[in-house]
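Long-time lurker. I teach an intro course on protein structure, and each term I like to show students one example going from raw sequence to a predicted 3D structure in token notation. This year I'd like something fresh instead of my usual example. Would anyone be willing to generate the tokens for the chain below so I can use it in lecture? Attribution to the forum is fine with me.
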Amino acid sequence: MASSVVRYGLRMRETFSVVNQDVAQWFPGHMAKGLNQMQRKLKSVDCIVEVHDARIPISGRNPLFERTLSAIKPHVLVLNKMDLADLRHRNSIVKHHTKEGIKHVIFTNCKRPESRGIKSIIPTVAEMIKNTERYNRSEETVYQLMVIGVPNVGKSSLINALRAKYLRKSKATQVGGLPGITQSVLEKIKVCEDPKVYLLDTPGVLAPKIRDVETGLKLALAATIKDHLVGEENIADYLLYRLNKNGNHSYVKYLNLEEPTDNIRQLLGLAAVNNGWKRKVRTQSGTQVIPDLQLSASKFIKGFRMGVFGPMILDDLENMKD
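-- Reply from a regular --
Happy to contribute to a lecture. Here you go:
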């Protein structure tokens, strides 16, 4: 049983537990194939650009990247979607990654090609490459980068933002809100003319073994795992737990509720009734209209992903002092 504490007159959970323990079992075949493709292309790559979601700056980064790709080539970590992340612990996040051996961490919002983070990527990687032994590529005047990361963190959006910034070109790669949309390693895409820089877009490769259930739920809430594999209600319940833990009750107004709650079934039911979210079901006596709890869960999750509840970080950073 999860422990609880009384806040705002309500008994709120201090820890989160979930009955379904299968959230760590998503590693589609095209992802394993993609990792093999990336390894084969390493000889033609000068630098690794790893993209991750700034709302989960610590959790969910694929350990296979470090062992098979990043340990061999210069590596920069791009924490994207910074507009949705609470960056009060920004310095602590950078220090954490520095201790892990990642010397270059850049925060970006790929929706803004002219932002400081996007502008700093090409100069940063160019400097890293100049100061690194390129071996078989030492005579090359063109820089080639490989973009890696778990699904749906903005890899394709980053490529498009760089092209918009440096080439004033339109989108080169498909962008979508579902994890795993880039199915195979694409041919090189030009993103800058001076210096001449090309990028490879790759499938997101999620770690085949997520460290624990809560890490899986963080990844699911950040949309790096397809919702139906984890269950919308499980994801919504974890979101409710995080919001209440932070004393953030902005969901009350968003879902048209009267007061905060720590009971996900109660929240979904009241939200469905108060907002008229219904669905028809067949019964022995005919068709019946009932509250649509799945729609309530989807609306709740969408609110988080759109930033309705304010900037958030899902990793616990209390012990990471600036």
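Some talking points for your students: The first helix runs from residue 29 to 40. The longest strand covers residues 47-53.
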